[in-house]
Each structure stands twice: as C-alpha cells, then as structure tokens.
Amino acid sequence: MREQPLKEVTQLIHAIKVGLVEGSFGITNKTLDIFKYIIISKSWKNADALMQIVRAQCRILQAALPQETVTSNIARRILKLTREEFDLLHAKVQHFTDDSQASLSLHKLVTQTSESNVSVDYSVPQQGLREALLDHLQEVETELETSSENICVQAEEHIHSSEIILTLGHSRSVENFLKRAIKKRQFLTIIVAECAPACRGHNLATSLAAEKNVEIIVIPDAAIFAMMSRVNKVIIGTHSVLANGGLRAACGAYTVALAAKHYSVPVIVLAPMYKLSPLHLCEQDAFNMVGCAEDVIPYDSIPARETKVYSPMFDYVPPELVTLFISNTGGHAPSYVYRLLTELYHPEDLEI
Amino acid sequence: MSMSVSLQAIKMIKTSDQVLQTESQTTRAKQKKQRQRNRPRNKRNRVEDSTTTANNTTKSSTTDSAPTESAMPGDNSQQDATREQVMAEREAKKQAKQAKKQKATTPATKIITEVEQTTITTKLTTTITTTARDKPEPPAGTAEPAAPIAAVTCPASTGTETGDKTRDQIKAEREAKKAAKQAAKAAKSSGTKVEPPVQKLANLKVTDKTPTLTAAPSSAADDDKKKPALSKAERRALQEAQRAAKAQGQGQVKKAQPAVKAPGAGTVLKELKRESVSPVKSATSSSPSKNSLITAKSECKVKLFNHLVCAEKGASLFINDPLVHPSMARLGVQYAQRTVVGSNARCIAFLHALRQVVQDFETPAKKEFGRSLDAAVKHHVDHLHKCRPLAVSVSNAYKQFRNQVTQLPADVPEAELKELLVHFIDTYMENQIGKAAQAISSSLQEKITDGDVLLTFGCSSLIQFICEEAKRRQVAFRVIVVDSRPTCEGQEMLRRLHAHGIPCTYVLINAVGYVMAEATKVLLGAHALLANGYVMARTGTAQVALVANAHNVPVLVCCETHKFSERFQTDAIVYNELSDPNDLVRDDKCCLKNWTAKAHLTPLNLNYDITPPELVSAVVTEVAILPCTSVPVILRIKPEIGY
C-alpha cells in the first residue's frame, strides 16, 4: 500500500532533518498542527477515513524519523480522541432512541468494553464530529503548552535548600526545572556533566550560571562516578519513556543512573506526558542510532583509518535504575507507566 | 599534434614572460630552463600515447628514482641534458645561497621535514649544527646531492604551471630522500665527503624552528649512534623526544641552563618511548594552558575542593634555582606541563634524573656523603612536588632510595658509594618496572585467548605491553579503547596499538554501555592501589568498572607492586589532584570560554578517581593475581620477599 505524504508532512520532515525544528516540544507542536490541519480539511467524510489518514501520515513520519517517537505518540492521541468523540456522539444518538440505558452502572462499565469494541462501526458518518474534535484538540494544545510549566511547579516539592544536584547534557525541561528550583531554594550546587562529544552540558551550565545564589560545576563525563558520592539527587531529562518504565535517554544516562544506584542516589526523570511511548523495547540495540564520529576522533588522524569508532546517540536506562518520573500531571513510579499508557492511548492504536 | 602542444606551452610561457617582465635575470633563466624541461615532457606524453615499450621503461625509471634531468628521454639530444645539468647545478647553488639568506623558503623546509627522519642518523656525525650556518658554499663535490633540492625550489618559486610543479615536487622529494640516504651511507663509510650537504640540511632545519630545539634531539640521537638503521619505534621515540623538547622550549629552562643538554636527558626521553610523552597533550597545551599559567594560581572556586591546592604553575617556579639540578628542573617542567604522564613514566623519568643527581653530586667540605646527599635529594623532591603532586610510584621509589642512602656503609670511598646508589637505581628500574611488567604480562597471557575482546580505558603502558605480547603470540583478539575528554589519552593508546596492527574500536566514555556487551574482559591500568583495596586511577576508570560489573564482565586491574600505597581512602574527593580547568573548554566557540568572568560557574577537572574493590574482579600483580583486599598483605610482606 503506497501512501503519499501531505505537503506539510514532507516540510516538517525536512525541517526536522535540517535542524530547523529542534527538541521534543517543538516537534510535538508541529506534528499537532499538521493533524489539526488534517481534521479541519474536508478530505474525510467519516471517522474511519480520518483515522486512516492519520495512520498513514503517522507511518510516513515514523519511517522518515524513526528516532522521534513523539510524532507517533501524538498520532495515537488523535486516534484516541477520534474514537472517544465518535463514541460519545454515537452514544448520544442512541441515548435518544433508548432511554433506559442512560444510567451507567458499575456492572456496565466492566462489561461494556468487550461489547462495544466489536460493535462500533466508525465508517458511519457522524454529525458534529469535526467540531467536537477541534474542541478537544484545543485542550490537548493547552496541555502541551503548559506541560513544561506544570513540571516546573513541582520543583519545590523535590528540591530542598543547599542540595547538590547532578544532571547530564542539556534538556529544556531540566533547565526550566532547575531555574525554578534556584529561584525558590538557596545555596544549591548543580553539577553538570558535559555529555561529550556534543558537550551540550556547557550550554546548560552557562544558561544556569546567569542565575544568582547557585554554584555550577561543569565536569567531564569521566568524573560522574567520582562526584556521585556527594550528590543528593540526579535530575535528568529523557528522549522518551518506554512502556516498561525504562528510558531512552541521551548517551551517558546509563552510566549516571548506574552510578546513582551504586551510591543510592535518587534518580528523577522529567518527562512530559507526550514522551510516553507504548514501545516495549528493553535493550539499546532495539532503537539506538550512531551519530557522526568526527567529534569523537578527527578523521585525519592516523589510527582513525582502520579503527571502528562509535558515537551512539541514546542509552537505554532500565526501569529499576529510575526512582521517579515527574510529568505534567504529577509524579509517577516507573512501575505505573503502563497504567498511564492505557489511559493515554487506545489499546488498538498501539500498533499504527 | 605534439608540436602544437609544445607550441602552446611555449606560448603560455611567453605570456607569462610578458607578465613577469619586471622580474630579474635569475627568474628569466629559470623560465628558460623550464621551457627546456617542458619540451621533452610533451614528447614523452606523446610517447606514452603510442605505448612504445622501450620508452615506457625509461619513463618508469624516471618516476621511480633517477634525477629528473638525467632521465629525460633519449630522443632528445644529449646536449640538452648536459646543459640542463649545468643549469641545474647553477640553480642549486643560487638557491642554496638564497635559502641561507632568507632563512629557507617554504618548499625547502617541507623537504627538510620529509628528509628529517632519514637524515637523523647522518646528523650524528655532525652534532654541532648551529655553528655551521655561515660557512661558504661547499665545492663541486657536493653539487649532485644539492641539485634535487634546487629542483624542488625552482618550480615552486616561479609557480607558472601548477600541474607540472606538483609532479616535479614529488619527484624531487623522492630524490632528496634518496640523496639523503646515500649521504647517510657515505657518512657511514667515509664520513667526510658528504658532510657539508647534511650540515646544510641541518642548517635549514635550524632556521625553521627555534634554536633551542636542535639540542635535545641531537643529544637524544647521540644514544642511538650504535645502531644507525633506526627502527620505526625508535624513530617515533625520537619524534616524541623532539616534541618534548619543544614543549620544554616553552618552559624557558633551556636558556638559563645550557647544561641541560647533558646526555642523561636524552636517555630519559629515549627510555620513555614506551609510555611517557603524550603528544596530544603537548599539542593542545598551546593556548589554554598558557592562560592557566596566569590564572591557575587563584584557589579553586569549587568549595568542595578547596582543600586541594591547585599546583602552582607560576613561571617563577621554573626559573633557575641554584640548588636544583638541571635534570630535576627539567623534570619538574615536564611534570607540570604534563609532557611526562603516567605513573610508570613519571617514575622512570624521576629515577633517571635521580641517577644524574647522584652522579653529579659533590659532597660539601667536612660533610658526610650520605646525609648531604639525602638533604639534596629531599630538596629536589620538594621541588618536584611543587611542580605537581608526586605520583605514588615516585614517592615509593624515593622512599626506597632514601632507605638505601641511610644504609650506606661508612668507610667506603665516595665514588664507590655513588656506584652503589646508581646500581640500586638501575636495578630498581629494571626489577620494579621492567621485569614486573613482564611478569604481569606473562601471567595475563593465559587469560587472553582467541576471540577475546579486551576493553581498556585511557592509556596504560602496561596494558599496551600486554596487548603487544598477546599480538606477538598471534592471538586473535581485539581491543576496545574507551576514552574521555579532556585529556583524550586513549587516542595515544589507539595510536600505539594501531602501530602494532591490533584491531581497535574507539568510543568515548559515555558510550561505554554501548560497547560493553561486546567485551569479554576489562583490563584497567592503575595509578596506585590503596591499602584498603581501592584502586586509584585516571578519572573514568571507576565508571568503566561499574558498567562492566553491570554487564557481568570481569574487571582485571593491572598494577605493579611498586605502585602500592599505604594510604587509605574511600572517595575521590579527600585526596585528588586538580588539572587545569581550561582544558574542558573545547575551542574558541565553546560557550564555556569565558567562564572566569562568571562568578558561579566553574569547570572542574579531576585527575583521579577511586574504584571500590567490589567492582574489581582481581588485581594482577607481578607476585600473583589477587583480590583487591590482599593489598595490605602484599604491603606487609613486600620487604621480606625482596620486592
């Protein structure tokens, strides 16, 4: 089956590949815009057609950008929304015809799902579906916009004064979170591991150094273990959260988490809800990618000719090394992630 | 057709002639010569097209070796060739003179660097290079070897046709090399006749670099006099020695003390070829470290490390102290600038310097030899400690030496005592470092089998030795070298292993989880083994051991017993060494660049970390393969078993 990408989708893919759109938040926002455009457009007549289009475009995005899981996460959200709205409208129609079924008993809640899954026919055209969807999409948009802020607000709950915090690389949510913590708490010491070869930790350090009442220490990645014995908390961002509660995070996160485990330091992971992906991957080979090796060793050096050089981009962090997830809806244990996933996405959409 | 081509060529040159009308007579002569050279070449092209086998052979001979002029194809008249030769000789003389005047044009220096390696043996015969600068031009006998040099410089300086120029250059370079080799041979046999050109080469080299440079390489080269055919490793060692000397030139010790030229220094550098001088370091130490000389004096901004005093790197330390022996002063600079790194290398360098001190020591009037020597050596060690905190291996060696000094017999002449001490130093070096490495290597060999993937971190001379030994046994294994910023010592390790043909993989330390699944054994070097079984090593070692443990890969720490320390330590912060924080700044574009301006921001560059014994499967020493916890046992029995 050949599916043609929309013009907007190709543009987005290009923008991401060239680096015009960066960060999970930006990508999520743009993807959402595309799906909104699809919903507004008149190209679909019923819920089933819409879902087909969304799935097709999602598959294209996934194939083009396998590392960006947020695109398919958003698509799953849209699919779930469509199903919900359709069911709601469908129920309303039925409600008029059959009044006796209006009361929802506990018994019905339990038994209902098995029946409805089989019976619902999404190809039936439904009045007012588009409007309802756009309404609901507005909610998703606001949730996305406020997610960073909602995470930041929880900084005070987790950080006390004169704490020593270690972080790795540069994550926007971590940056905002720590800035908030610096404002609220005094005498913090923040240790930033630079995360070679890109050394994005340097950016975070300079950005945080603009604040007052804080001490920023930049360390090379090799010194993580040495410094860990003095650290109170590890706060890191992640690329995505996997279904088992594990992380697919920046390279080096595994070492940080292991060292933290060795010294029994809690590891707090900041992950907005859109980073939760229903992927059951439990080893890094399943998803890892290797980046440009030029930064690791210069191409023109003599041994580089015959040496294998890797510059992997991600690390898999198993769930047992993570203490807590902080999302925009609050804190969650890694073992609870599966439950969040079932709430967030429809079981039939896990496979797109 | 060929005529038209040659005509075109001539036309081209004519046009260029018009452009260069204002040029002097010499350039015109050059162009004339070039025109002459062009003609036969075009003919040769035609010959190539027609593929005459006989001419082909002549062509191949030209490209292979023979000088450009004499190899011109035979269908041209013989006269041309001879005239050209005369021209070339004249040119050569002119060029040589010009080179002397103008301190060598760039292409000339290029050849010199090329030739440097081959001529390094010939230089042995002419150790004094700096004085020969204003000698008159060597007479006719030298014209032939000088010609190739001219052949290179001529086309380069005229620069009318680029394509031919490069080809010419390549040829001429080859010739220059060959000439140098011939010169070397001749020097071996007679020595007198070919000296002048060699001197000239040396001269050009001198003009290229700072005058202080030549002293150390030549002295280092002195030692190799016995074996004129340098092996690859030795040549590398020489290069490293030169680099070290360069780094030292910056330290400005040389000017104050010409005596540093002493042969001992050369031998040190030669000995250190195994592990010592890290070229990466000396290469990168250009701009940031210069800053550090000024800034590093201020105390550490990180409160956690206030107790670790940054080594004072003020220039005042390195200017001449009358009580410090030149060899020690030089060593101090090498320590401070991290040109000598690695605990074995530091120990060997220290022992060599110490031997020099002992040999040159003169007992003051009415004083006892042993005691005054002890005091003098103590002063030296203090000096070294100021330059950089002493390595455990160095302080252990010093302790042993002191022990020896106090036990010196009383009624023996001084010369004999010195002999005794020198002998002690030599045996210490041989037993504790050389033989220990062999013992460790041989006990590890049975652990390395076909298909093994060894993972190692940073650069360790011992691990390198073990890998080389395994390669010699023709075991099919490969090595994963894990490295970390900012020192990137692993690149040096990679270079050495690569030179021995060992297949390598190279990753940075945060990717260690990515490659750990492949590894079958982790071999780690150590700076010291502490009495509580903790391993003190380069930062990152503990992390590698941690990840290896998580993957259930055995971790073997290789450490000679002379690195065992009686200190107890449980974390890396109580006692550590801080390196220059500016090393963390990547380049000028890095946003950390002006960190000093920001009050709250500090890069921290720890030198060592501590690996807890539970992460280490075994320690391989020359005594046995032991668990970490047996360190105190070794420490206790060590004097008894004579190590």
UniProtKB/TrEMBL annotation, chain A:
A Pfam family recorded for this sequence: IF-2B
Gene3D superfamilies: Translation initiation factor eif-2b, domain 2
Gene Ontology biological-process annotations: cellular response to hypoxia
Family statement drawn from the similarity comment of this UniProt entry: Belongs to the eIF-2B alpha/beta/delta subunits family.
Segments traversing the membrane: none
Localization (cell): Cytoplasm, Cytosol
Alphabetically ordered keywords of this record: Cytoplasm, Initiation factor, Protein biosynthesis
Molecular function (Gene Ontology), one example: translation initiation factor activity
Annotated InterPro entries: eIF2B_beta_subunit, IF-2B-related, IF_2B-like_C, NagB/RpiA_transferase-like
Name used for this protein in its record: Translation initiation factor eIF2B subunit beta
GO cellular component, one term: cytosol
Main location: cytoplasm
Subunit structure: Component of the translation initiation factor 2B (eIF2B) complex which is a heterodecamer of two sets of five different subunits: alpha, beta, gamma, delta and epsilon. Subunits alpha, beta and delta comprise a regulatory subcomplex and subunits epsilon and gamma comprise a catalytic subcomplex. Within the complex, the hexameric regulatory complex resides at the center, with the two heterodimeric catalytic subcomplexes bound on opposite sides.
From TrEMBL, chain B:
Keywords linked to the UniProt accession: Cytoplasm, Initiation factor, Protein biosynthesis
Compositionally biased residues, Low complexity: 50-66, 140-151, 209-220, 239-259, 277-291
Compartmental location: Cytoplasm, Cytosol
GO MF terms held by the record: guanyl-nucleotide exchange factor activity; translation initiation factor activity
Residue ranges, compositional bias (Polar residues): 15-27
InterPro entries (UniProt xref): IF-2B-related (IPR000649), IF_2B-like_C (IPR042529), NagB/RpiA_transferase-like (IPR037171)
Keyword NAD in record: no
An individual GO BP term: animal organ development
GO cellular component: cytosol; intracellular protein-containing complex
Family per similarity comment: Belongs to the eIF-2B alpha/beta/delta subunits family.
Function per UniProt: Acts as a component of the translation initiation factor 2B (eIF2B) complex, which catalyzes the exchange of GDP for GTP on eukaryotic initiation factor 2 (eIF2) gamma subunit. Its guanine nucleotide exchange factor activity is repressed when bound to eIF2 complex phosphorylated on the alpha subunit, thereby limiting the amount of methionyl-initiator methionine tRNA available to the ribosome and consequently global translation is repressed.
Protein name stated in the entry: Translation initiation factor eIF2B subunit delta
Organism of provenance: Drosophila pseudoobscura pseudoobscura (Fruit fly)
